[in-house]
Amino acid sequence: MGRLDGKVIVLSAAAQGIGQAAAIAFAKEGAQVTATDINGEKLRELDGYPGIKIKVVDVTKKDQVEALAKDHDHVDVLFNVAGYVHHGSILNTEEADWDFTMDVNVRSMYLMIKAFLPKMLERKSGNIINMASVASSIKGVVNRCVYSTSKAAIIGLTKSVAADFLEQGVRCNCVCPGTVDTPSLRARIQAQPDPEQAFKDFMARQKTGRMCTAEEVAHLCVYLASDESAYVTGTEHIIDGGWSL
């Protein structure tokens, strides 16, 4: 028996990185997974994987999110992963950067939770996991102004949902990684004027001498999605190799 046998799980940003690793980890533990992403081409890498069905969804679009919710009679676990990392201080953050980051990182979770929560309340059972970051209210990070602001908002959103619906059987937690070695990170490093120095800068802050892997974050997500964490709600789960210490 798997740790997630019989559970129906919906997650966003499943085409690569943490989202993809989590979708696979959930399925391996027996869950029926709906893996969504805006990138249909990359998402197809999961097509045919046992226990996973894929669906192209833009989680910033209300109509698409509501249609996704209507496709499911019930959902045991909702995992909100979609996010965007903007590089810059407040002086380098244009209004368009601010609006886009907040739309992808925060509004998408608002839309997803609002669409799926009623189904959980009907069953008096549900589990929501949100992707935050140590770059948030937990730790100030250079050149992560709007990103950190958005992730701090996610921590607040998580605690609010947990407090409001605890007595109706719904849990809500968030995951706060440090630096995770993902295709997104590698692309951002390559986009810097000096990619070699950018990589060295990232590595210099890794107290363990290495970055976290997407699979390691997925292991934590399996725990939060499982009944093993039944008494856990409203909390931020840091997985950063001691970076925030």
UniProtKB/TrEMBL annotation:
It is found in: Cytoplasm. It catalyses: (R)-3-hydroxybutanoate + NAD(+) = acetoacetate + NADH + H(+). One of its GO terms (molecular function) is 4-oxoproline reductase activity. Pathway: Siderophore biosynthesis; Amino-acid metabolism. GO terms for biological process: lipid metabolic process; siderophore biosynthetic process. GO terms for cellular component: cytoplasm. Its EC number is 1.1.1.104, 1.1.1.30. Keywords: Cytoplasm, Lipid metabolism, NAD, Oxidoreductase. Its main location: cytoplasm. The keyword NAD applies. Belongs to the short-chain dehydrogenases/reductases (SDR) family. Homotetramer. This is Dehydrogenase/reductase SDR family member 6. It comes from Osmerus mordax (Rainbow smelt). The gene is BDH2.
